Amino acid sequence: GGGALVPPAPPPVAAAGADAALPAPEIVYRTAKVNRADLIDQGFVMPDAAITALAEEFRIVKRTLLLNAIGPTALPNGRRILICSAQANEGKTFCAVNLALSMANERDIEVLLIDGDFAKPTVLSTLGIEGPVGLMDALADPDIDVETLVIKTDVGNLSVLPSGKYTNEATELIAADRTRAIIERLSA
Q1: Which residues face 151 on adjacent strands?
Q2: Does residue 49 have a pLDDT over 80?
């Protein structure tokens, strides 16, 4: 289950005077508890668990990615990270979840882990969370506000966005301009 990790953007600056932007309405996020015991049993890196060799490896990867995302040499789209591979069972979900957990341990970073494997979503089940509605539903229905589908977890700064209900139009929906707009909105 590939995913995207998106550290937060700096807060927007409102224009001064009569044309000042009004704040967006507050979104009430669903919250969920991550099944920490199962994650530890499966070899995942938990922020509050003992430091292991695997945790150190993910910290090394995380540092490089964070420099590209928010450091002095930040790349324009460096805040978006895609975990992918050509074959099944190559560890995409394992890497995406571990990297998200490691990044969520940072003090000033919020992480949104998006389950982008629409055919076989596993990010939420790996975390021990349920969430039937997700990104695919927001792509298919313009009346769904994708931000209302984000689930805040009890792991510090980690939120997840389920993949949503699979549709035969998944490829076309992902290729549409609406997808780009939704990803931009989530990044902001």
Answers
A1: 30, 160
A2: no
